[in-house]
Amino acid sequence: SDLLPSILAQVVGGIAAAGVLFVIASGRAGFDVSAGFASNGYGAHSPGQYSLVACLVAEVVLTFMFLIIILGSTDRRAPAGFAPIPIGLGLTLIHLIGIPVTNLSVNPARSTGPAIFVGGWAIEQLWLFWLAPIVGAVLAGIVYPAIAEE
Predict the structure, then answer these.
(1) Residue 9: CA count within 13 A, CB half-sphere
(2) What's the CA gap between 55 and 42, in Å, rounded?
(3) Which residue, 35, 56, 77, 106, is the most exposed by fewest CB within 10 angstroms?
(4) Quick one: which of 125, 101, 99 has its CA closest to 51?
C-alpha cells in the first residue's frame, strides 16, 4: 500500500530538487539547459558516447551492486551502525564508474528531475533510466537471499 505513494514522493522530490538546481544554475551568465543539465543519456547523449546496450548493462549492474551492498550492510547479521560506511563508499564507487557512461542514474526519480527541465531527448531516453534500475533492483532482491542464506 506504500509503494505508489513512495514512488510518487520520490519523483516529486527529484523534480523539486532539479528545480532548485535549475534556479541556481540559471543564475550564471551563459547557462544553457540544452547542455544536458546532468540528464542521463545514451549514444550521443552519453558523456562518453556509450551505446544503448553499454548504458543499459552499466545501469543494471551498478544498481544491482549498490542494492547488494545495501542489503548486505543492513542485514540483521551485519554489525549494527556500520551500514552508512559501505553504502557511502559503494555509492561513491558506482558514481566514479557510471558518470562517464550515463551520468549515472540508479534511481528513476533522480533521472526524472533533470529530464523534465531538459525535455526532448532527455525525456525520450528516460525509459532506460527507469527500466535499468528497476531490473537491477529486482535482480538484487532475487540474488541476495540466495547468496546470503543462513
Answers:
(1) 5
(2) 6
(3) 77
(4) 101
